[in-house]
Amino acid sequence: MSQPDWTDQVAGLVASQVRVYRERRNMSAQQLADACTEAGLPIKRSVIANWENGRRTTVSVAELLVLGSVLGIPPILLLFPIGQHESVEVVPGKKMSPWAAAKWFSGVEPAGIETGLPVKVDLQAWRPITLYMQHDDLVRKLRGEAQRTRLITDADRRRDVERNIRNLEEALGDVRNEIRKFGIVLPDLPEELTYIDALGKE
């Protein structure tokens, strides 16, 4: 497929998904246009109609973000309709499942050789995403274990959970130190976990 055909196809896919979610919310094209304007990016009703009828074959990143916001969905679903299509053409001539495409697009997982996308991955560029995902995972686990300690009455089980909490605290501290060494902005900690940064200084 040539590049102009592919760009038309991408815009058409976004337009079809806009219609799916607009109709799911029982919104008219005018109501969607009004909602976009209220969100800070005026999009005329005629533009929405032209998208949905295939007469407008471009969608800007700003439009994609605002449409996702007013439709109440992750904007990535407008590009990669997970669960609705078997494959999407992510770059001209290269297809993968919408789920694999979404993971690649959001930095969760590099596209592999089976997708036909370039295999050479800039691991340095992907590292901040990996570190932030590890950070989020540890924060989620720590909060869960803290919740468990409030419910456990058995002393032995409580000690096991507290030991697990200490291990998670150490792992989270290590990830935060690695983020510092990498020279990128530290993610915020929930208020109840702000003590983590002081643990290594004691």
Task: Quickly list its features.
elongated; 2 strands; 434 Repressor (Amino-terminal Domain); mainly alpha; 202 residues; single chain; 2 domains
Highest CATH level, the class of the largest domain: Mainly Alpha
CATH topology of the largest domain: 434 Repressor (Amino-terminal Domain)
* Distance between the amino and carboxyl termini: 61 Å
Nearest-angstrom radius of gyration?
22 Å
User: Helix count?
Assistant: 9
CATH superfamily of the largest domain: lambda repressor-like DNA-binding domains
What is the string of SSEs from the N terminus onward? HHHHHEEHHHH
Fraction of residues in β-strands: under 5%
The strand order across the widest sheet is: 1-2
General description of the model:
The protein is 62% helix and 3% strand. The chain is mostly helical and 202 residues long. The protein folds into two domains: 3-115, 434 Repressor (Amino-terminal Domain), CATH 1.10.260.40; 123-199. The chain has a two-stranded antiparallel ribbon. α1 (3-24) runs parallel beside α4. The longest helix has 29 residues, at 123-151. It is elongated, with a radius of gyration of 22 Å.
Describe the secondary-structure layout.
Layout: H1 3-24, H2 29-38, H3 45-52, H4 61-71, H5 76-79, E1 88-91, E2 94-96, H6 98-106, H7 123-151, H8 155-182, H9 196-199
Q: What does this entry show, briefly?
A:
It contains nine helices and two strands, in the order αααααββαααα.
